[in-house]
Amino acid sequence: MLITNIKGLVGVHSKETLSLRGSELNQLPILENAWLLIEDGLIKDFGLMSNLNTQYANLNTINAEGRFVFPSWCDSHTHLIFAAPREEEFALKIAGKTYEEIAAAGGGILNSASKLLQASEDELFESASIRLSDMIKQGTGAVEIKSGYGLTVESELKMLRIIQRLKAAFPIPIKATLLAAHAYPTEYKNNHQAYIDLIINALLPKVAAESLADYIDVFCEKGFFSNKETAQILEAGAKYGLKPKIHANQLSSTGAVQIGLAHQAVSVDHLEETDTDVLQALGQSPTIATLLPSCSFYINIPFANAKGLLSHNAIVALASDYNPGSAPSGNMNFVVSLACIKLKMTPEQAVNAATLNGSAAMQLSNEVGSIAIGKKANLFITRPMTSLAYLPYSFGQSQVETVILNGEIYHG
Ligand code: NIG
Ligand code: FE
């Protein structure tokens, strides 16, 4: 397949560039008036229209005149398997209740867990498939999915098996994360160690035996998992080769980031609450700072300090956090808009963070995340756009016109 007359071919980073830190995010290489050749599902070559090889004339060709071609969004943090939405909490939130108050009153994660317990694996697979297909149509071409609404051995395994089925059913790379440490089930409210022991002794060996997870996550937060509890779980995961990607500094700054860094986390995610120590630590670390502005937007908490992270030289990624409680949307176009509007990232920084750095946060940047020869042809063609900035500027609307995965048009 050949794509011609591309107004802007976005994210033409060198193949060796696997992530971007600090001021490197300012550079989003764009080839103007370009063509792109796809062969065997991979990016085979690209160049300027003035140098288009005439031997390509017979190929199946898409004329992208006036349009931009982007590498697919790489959404490195989602909880897209859930049994039911939580609109009842929406009303409570509008009435002024905070996320913590709703959770403490038995809403929140525990509410989702009791609903998931009742749902069959097939039902959950079907509803997750619809969400994932919608996300793909909005430009997402690689995704991470967490468990964490199971909170029993069987229910967590059920979630992870559904992720395995999604991996087999969808034409995009998918990474699975074990998030059994998402909240304490009510029966363990006064016996945290017993739940941790269950994760470590009963769940982890099964997850490892069936190779059901790529990463391990903990909601390290006041009222959820303490720093010590988080460390214990991450150490147990490490014995099975599971690297951490953790929920850190979402509601308070109490050392979660430092716990992640001490355990060589691939990413620490959220970071709505940071102090200078956190910014400095991330600026000197290979751990990726993944920001989730849809969550701040939806539950009315502070937006992460993206500018501070970038000026301290951190590797900043953007993801959707798609989940029923704090971010009921998997729309990465909106995430990129929010990053510009609320985090004050430039369109170039935001696109880099949502593509190449997102792929790095899933250890997939050899395969996806930029336009480079040999990478998967996972990309999208926009509607006609005046400039790159039009995409985040036109918030709430999708400029994605054609999705191409493994070199084939995705119809969903
Ligand atoms: O990333 N903070 C923890 N987990 C999710 C929310 C989960 C929920 O409310 O169901 C998050 O925001
Ligand atoms: Fe999350």
UniProtKB/TrEMBL annotation:
Binding annotation for 4-imidazolone-5-propanoate: R86, Y149, H182, Q250, S326
Keywords from the UniProt entry: Cytoplasm, Histidine metabolism, Hydrolase, Iron, Metal-binding, Zinc
Pfam families documented for this protein: Amidohydro_1 (PF01979)
Entry-linked InterPro entries: Amidohydro-rel, HutI, Metal-dep_hydrolase_composite, Metal_Hydrolase
Pathway involvement of the protein, from the record: Amino-acid degradation; L-histidine degradation into L-glutamate; N-formimidoyl-L-glutamate from L-histidine: step 3/3
GO molecular function: imidazolonepropionase activity
Cofactor note: Binds 1 zinc or iron ion per subunit.
Catalytic activity: 4-imidazolone-5-propanoate + H2O = N-formimidoyl-L-glutamate
E.C. number: 3.5.2.7
Subcellular location: Cytoplasm
Protein name from the UniProt record: Imidazolonepropionase
